[in-house]
Amino acid sequence: MTIREINLIMEILACRRPVLVSILKNRKFIKRCHTYSHNQQRSMSHIMQRRMDRNPLFKINNPQLSRHFAIMRVLSSVLKLRYLVIGSAVGGGVSVSKKYQEWKDSLPDLSWLEDIFPNNNIANTIQTSLKSILDTVQDIDFDSSKSNEKLDKLKVWLDSHIDQAFKAAEITESDDQSKIVEDISPIITKAATPNSKDYKQKLEISQQEIIEIQLRYQKELEKLEKENKELRKILLLAKNHKMNMRKVKKSLIDMYSELLDELNDYDSNYQTQDHLPRVIVIGDQSSGKTSVLEMIAQARIFPRGAGEMMTRAPVKVTLSEGPYHVAQFKDSAREFDLTKESELAELRKEVEARMKNTVSRGNSVSNEVISMTVRGPGLQRMVLVDLPGIISSVTQGMAPDTRECIRQMSTAYMSNPNAIILCIQDGSVDAERSNVTDLVSQIDPHGRRTILVLTKVDLAEKNMANAERVNKILSGSLFPMKALGYFAVITGKGNQNDSIDSIKEYEENFFRNSKLFRESIGISSQLTTRNLSMAVSDCFWKMVRETVEQQADSFKATRYNLETEWKNNFPRYLELDRDELFEKARGEVLNEVVNLSLVSVKDWEEKLSAELWNGISHYIIENVYLPAGYSVNQTNSTASFNTMVDIKLKQWAEEQLPRKSINIGWVVLKDMFKTMFEENQNQKLQASDEILETLKMAVIDEALKRHSWEDKALEMLRVIQLNTLEDRCIKDKHNWDQAAQFLTSTLENNLKVTDGLLKEMVGPSNYEKWFYWQSSTAEQTKRNNIKYELENLLHSNPSHSNLLSKDEQITISNNLKQKNGTPCELDDIWQTWYLVYRRHYFKIALENAQNIKKHFYHYQESNGLQNEYYDIEMFWRITRMIKVTANVLRQQITNRELRRLHKELKEVLDEYSQNIEMKCKLLTGRRVTLVEELNKVKQIQEKLEDFIQALNKEK
Fold it and tell me: Which of 258, 269, 405, 457 is most buried, judging by how many CB atoms fall within 10 Å of its CB?
């Protein structure tokens, strides 16, 4: 083999150096190839020798063949070096291909570069050329004597060039990609530079393709979700045809919503605040805040007004996934079908009515929360709170403090450190006119829980002279307010009657064709309300998982504090809340009515008889007995007494007595009820609960106040009383004695009362003046002198009538004038005469009554024809009437009125049980409030634990 031939081989190998340097850029592959090359060089002669020893051809002892085999050994070494080069090229090519593919994916579509690289035909031509070169090398006559020397030179040359390749590959990591591109092809580098003519066009096409792919993906996803819901419905129907499809199992978001409702009603003295996340929707008035919420809920659920403030109270909307698109208020069982426009209109009216009801007179906004749940297929699970819009000034018709009230309400909700602030900004107006961004920046200066939503961007593209302002907002470089994310949405087309589906289609078409957003790179995920709702939902659940455990621990500590306070202050009482205490009082009050029915007949009738006589005694004495008795003295005929008594008693029994008797019976019933209740309470004082006394007495008083006697009992009582008063015959000695005793006691009581009145009129007696150092006034002295003259008149004529003649009055007046030197008025004489004669009559009547006690048998023998017994007959009639009336009233009470009173007590208790204010008023004290707070904390803690358990299962 000549030197020229060896040089030719070396030139062939040297021409591939640039390719070898480019391939060996990958460091790991270079090191692996370098190690392999040295080992191959060291073991090449040994491998060749071992193969030659194994081949029987080489065992032939032939010098010529030995020379040819030596040549073959050299060629074999050269060919193995070819394998090393080709293997290194292949391995490096794979690594470069991967790095090139990554770099290619980061660029726009570079399919136009295919024209630059060689096609298959050119590659086949190169392959054929290499084969021909190898064939030529194999045909070369190689000199075996000089082969070892030339082979050593070839190895030295290869080592030097491989070292150069390693040094060329040792470049900085930042320049790797650009160097590889330059080594592969200068044309690729030129095409990738921003100065290329088609660069912007390629980027616009790529951005448009990304948006269209995303929109197609969203549509396919919605389609699959709808198909999934339909399949779930079919499976449920196949499993149970009778199940109600609208009643679904309580979901995780429903559990969370109920937990928020419980926390909203909770008021703690231990400063355990509600720090659970919810999405607070806040924005300037008419910025599209409510429309964003409706787009997320996929239904027009809120009332709308042209520039008028419609949201007057916080509205908590719980979005939940369900088979039907329905809405339901927290305190109502009705479900509104959101697919029907008629029910949507009714829902909006109901929301508006509830807002007006929450606003008290004189105010424009309210802090009372309206809670509702919206379920539907494809809805993102979250809890949103829609707040009244931030206003710049107060208009006519609003309360003067409306602006400040809205800011305080918004600040209070955003101050929750775990609340997600959905800040709505109108994109069609200047950013400098925004009020809400400053307020949000004060509450969340670092933007750790704020999401900015830019609405009405379709109007912004039309109206804005500088379209870059929208891109600056979405990139977070325009507002000083920081946020987690920035989104652009469209929530309407300018018509309030547009459907949600049509608005979504308009939104997608706008962002697909908008020049403003098509020119912005990398903001496709910040567009459309669907992307917004998914981002907010993800942020919401992330915040929930991070904070719910901490909230549960806070309530555990609060519960421990409350239980400790109860054990220290009320160790002997059961933990009964206000409702349980009310039920305890209910049972005790109703038991008192049962105890009232156990009162004996004797007790009832004695009480009724005593009250009846107290109620009618004045009329009997003043209007019946005394006028009839005075008539006897005037006419000297006892017949006139009975005549007058009959007339007056009959008239009285027909007009006044029945109603008077019923009123007395009602008074007796009330007094007996209260007396028995108080006595029972005193007997059970140690076992009774003093906190219930106010409530029980209030219930009893209200029931007795409402109670009225049955009207039909009045006529029946009238007939009985008239029949009783007509019978004047005393049939036995017992009744005679009762009547005589009743007459005597009545006369004694009236005589005692008359003496007291007369003594008050005339002053103390001489005995009292001497022994008790009492004195009389001038008026009393004058009355005493008149009394003395009148008593002398009656002493001279004991049967004097109750009237004074004119001459008698003048005589008394003259006598007093002669004795005292002062004249006396006739009115003073008449007033003193009334009491003096009344006492005189009662004394005579009492003497007669005491005398006739033993005259029963004389009365019986005369068959009642003796007129001297007229007064005892009258009192017998009164006694019997009272007894019969008491019996009738007692039967009416025990048979009818107690049951009616029991019913009225139940009605009062039922009304009070529904009246929270009344229960709070009648059941007060730390013992009640402590139990209610403890029960509330227990309930919230249980709900928190259930929610955490369900949340962990979902993870």
Answer: 457
